[in-house]
Amino acid sequence: MPHNSQKSNRLLIGFLVLLIGTNLINYFMFGYEPQKEDPVAEVEETEEYSSALPEGYVELELFAEVLDRVLKNYYEPVDLTELIHGAIDGMLRSLNDPQTNFFTAPELENFLIQTMGSFGGIGVRIVNAGDEVVIVETIPGTPAEKAGLYPGDRIIRASGVDLMGLGVERAVELLRGPQGTTVTISVVRPGADEVMDLTLERDDIRLETVTSQMLQPGLGYIKISSFDRNTGADFAEHFERMQGHLQKGLILDLRNNTGGLIDEAIKVAKLLVPEGEITRLVDRHGQTRKIHYSSAAALPFPVVVLVNEETASASEVVAGALQDRKAALLVGAATFGKATVQHLAQLSGNNALRLTVAKYLTPSGRDLHGQGLQPDYPVEMPAALKYYRFFLPGQLSQGSYGMEVELLQSMLQELGYGVKASGYFDESTAAALASFQEDCGLNPTGIFDDITWVGLREALEEIALDHDSQLQKAIELIGKAELWEHAGR
User: What are the pLDDT digits (tens) for 167-176?
Assistant: First the structure.
């Protein structure tokens, strides 16, 4: 290798070692204890770390050599930032931990929206349907709802940009913006050919993570969809409003709640878990770093918690504490089993690293990671009710086949239309679908299209509570006085 190339390599290696060494010093001395900007978890750390580079970091020389050769000799020009980001992503993937991630600035913004609970926009949830962008939900009270947008509407243009083939991420970039600014969109409604042009003023959209209702006199139901920075206060408000009316009991629905801010989960647990331990955080050495406690009195009414395969992380903290402390029965399916805690660290260039730094145990010392919680009463959920909210619009007709067809057939079954869930769209499927369309006042074509998708969702929403086998089991258990007397109530 020529002298200048060797010198360049040495300089690059030196720079990388200095850069990474400095970051490691910052991490080992300051980084393990999350700072105030950390929105994900809180972990205490008292152990002192050496700032010396661990053995094996001579491998950085190999990395620098590969990087140098790619930059100089690859047959096409390459972007250094893309190479470094790719190397970081590859390094983190080698940990085999889906909760440890490198975020670019736009990715960080999207992640923080999930945890902070609000964003500037028009208030729609959108998905890709082929090359098009389709609304699957309008958030109540938002500019989208006030403008008359509905599930099934296809947004074909935003701010003058044709969205065909651009995907949801690009659409989100165009629809979001500061409160008070405007965005013009073009929409095609199911069953209509004309294009509607609407100009909407963006607002601060707050995501509601807590909803509640009285299922029957004396029996309350609260659903928590995720844990953002408002969840603890919102739950307290719903719970306090209900508390004087819960003579029969409370059903807490944590199904499809994949977690969020553990501090918010602790706030919820402190209202439900009787005095004592809620959870403990342990480090990589198995040392307990923090224990969260409740000081609440035992609730004077029964509590049943609904869980399923998507109940994870912070929601498992709440469910695990209630189960361990014998303060509630769990009904549903085994939970996901994500028992780790992440620290979000700001990096240069408005990038960030979400790194797993600890895990939690239930009050009895159970490690749920990879195991999950086993419900006290396992109950299967009908496939149609389990997945219909994830069923996307499109077109299906005779000859189509696959999982989408099977789910369509399951939904028709659940609604009382006789068809076998085979996964193949045959003549009997077309006949059943045509019957459903006719009953809904739609053109009975026997072809699944956008307007039929809207009708199916609405029909399933109407029967969801009565056909929800897990919820019905919870109601049954709440009514068994002898069960709760045996539990010491």
Answer: 888 888 888 8
